[in-house]
Amino acid sequence: VRGGAELPGGSKLWDETLAGALDAARTGDWPLCTYLAARCFLEAGGSNAGAAALAVSDERCCKTLWLEVAAPVVVEVPPGQERLCVRFDNNRDALDWVPT
Prior knowledge:
This protein has five helices and two strands; from the N terminus they run H-H-H-H-H-E-E. It is mainly α.
């Protein structure tokens, strides 16, 4: 990126944003990810502004994390032992376990 270097096709062909860098990371293309992240950093103005551009929360990453890590967790509960933790309107401070 130093000295105005660009990939063939320039910014018309490559998504020089955080989303583009994350897409490259998802495919395992770490050199492209590094380049696109550096371009994103520079395009945002470098320094604190560039760091802020790279620190933005990415909704696709959150969804992927949920689908790949959290959602597949299955807990087997023996029949008759199912209960829900409930907070009733008349007593918002206490939680009650209610059998299903």
